[in-house]
Write a structure and sequence with these properties.
Aspartate Aminotransferase, domain 2; 2 domains; binds pyridoxal-5'-phosphate; alpha/beta; single chain
Length: 390
């Protein structure tokens, strides 16, 4: 049996996979089992921050792997502390809780919000407002937080206490705050799975003001937008807001599983002994990877991310076969005239690997993709978008 046939037989059928097996890679280039080369425009969904086989990443991981791979949270661990200190210094957060995924980071944020609400406002203040079209994860609670009905079917009853407001409509949020007992508002600043929609800065500022006015926490889900993806270390840093909790995952480990829930001033003392935990959380190898990733997301790299982003926006906006370009930094959504799935499959034939988000083609290349590869990818993409219409 081929890998494809065995996959169908032995793996739960939760993924509609592309007909492609990636076996190795080098930087922003990846190769399939037949040796065909592709320019990686998705980095494993914004995970491989510095692409494949990156020597700095490999060294950091190997070095830690040769010391110890896991110790449990019963003992102190240097890589874990180092990464937490780095995240706090770079964001203004006061404490970090480590988990292993985006959903887990958000679960932690939701527990923090409810705990804070019950301690500061009263037990009934458990409601959390999220946005329609959002995505916060696949656990029963983060599904409940996700404001898209398609994800809710079949899994009811979901966790109670989530209300859905409209993105870019401050009044819809205020109405929910007035009519319900709430402890927090939770949102992505660029809705990733929802179609790469960057929130309007006025709306984000307005929500931040509402959080103060109604004394509720502001939770920002930076699972996808974080770790340099949008052109700042975290997206909230370019929206001019001070959140109470920020979650991240995807690109933080550069390819290894790790998630983080960062707590700022108001929430720093909330989690006490026994209130939360994770066996694998803060794994030393994942944290050593994280340290090596965050260390390299410095101002020169971020500037490069913004320049590459500008280049893609300039080239693709108004090009033939392209209706619109959205997003922030190297998190880009392209609305094509032709069906997005058709464009993606043609791209794959031509050696590009973009992915989909709703009805759009989504680009999430490694942050250090060389400019010449990006130029080549954009050129091919424009040809494909045009050809697909004809
Ligand atoms: C991917 C994603 C998640 C879920 O992360 P997992 O690691 O798959 O659990 C949550 N929120 C956002 C914004 C995401 O993009």
């Amino acid at each position: 049996m081929s890998i494809k046939e065995k996959d169908k037989e032995f793996i739960a059928n939760t993924y509609a996979r592309f007909d492609l097996q990636i076996t190795r890679g080098c930087g922003s280039l990846v190769y399939d089992d037949k040796g065909k080369e592709y320019i990686d425009l998705s980095s494993g969904i914004a995970v491989n921050t510095f692409g494949m086989c990156d020597p700095v990443f490999i060294n950091a991981v190997n070095e830690q792997l040769n010391k110890c791979q896991h110790t449990s949270n019963l003992y102190y661990s240097e890589p874990c502390v180092k990464l937490a200190e780095m995240l706090c210094t770079r964001t203004g957060a006061k404490k970090v809780f480590f988990g292993n995924s985006g959903a887990e980071a958000n679960e932690c944020a939701i527990k923090v919000a409810r705990l804070w609400g019950s301690q500061n406002k009263g037990e009934k203040y458990y409601n959390i407002i999220t946005l329609k079209n959002s995505f916060h994860g696949r656990t029963i609670t983060t599904l409940a937080a996700t404001g898209q009905d398609v994800f809710h079917a079949y899994f009811n009853p979901l966790t109670e206490g989530f209300l859905y407001g409209e993105a870019n409509n401050v009044d819809s949020i205020e109405k929910l705050l007035l009519e319900n007992k709430c402890c927090a508002i939770m949102m992505e600043l660029v809705q990733g799975e929802g179609g790469v929609m960057a929130l309007n800065p006025d709306f984000v500022g307005g929500v931040s003001k509402l959080c103060e006015k109604y004394n509720v926490l502001l939770l920002i889900d930076e699972v996808q937008t974080g770790n340099g993806r949008t052109g700042s270390l975290y997206a909230f840093q370019q929206y001019g807001i001070t959140p109470d909790v920020v979650t991240t995952a995807k690109g933080l480990g550069g390819g290894l599983p790790i998630g983080a829930c960062m707590m700022f001033g108001k929430t720093e003392g909330i989690l006490g002994a026994g209130l939360h935990g994770s066996t694998f959380g803060g794994n030393p190898v994942a944290c050593a990877a994280g340290v090596s990733i965050i260390e390299r997301i410095d101002e020169p790299l971020l500037k490069e991310v913004r320049e590459k982003s500008q280049y893609v926006f300039d080239e693709l906006s108004g090009a033939e076969g392209i209706k619109s370009v959205s997003g922030l930094g190297l998190m880009i959504g392209i609305e094509t005239v032709a069906d997005a799935s058709l464009v993606i499959s043609k791209c794959m034939e031509r050696g590009l690997l973009p992915i989909k988000a709703k009805n759009k083609v989504r680009l999430l290349p490694p942050l250090n993709i060389p400019f010449d590869l990006l130029r080549k990818a954009v050129k091919v993409f424009k040809e494909v978008a045009k050809e697909c219409v004809q």
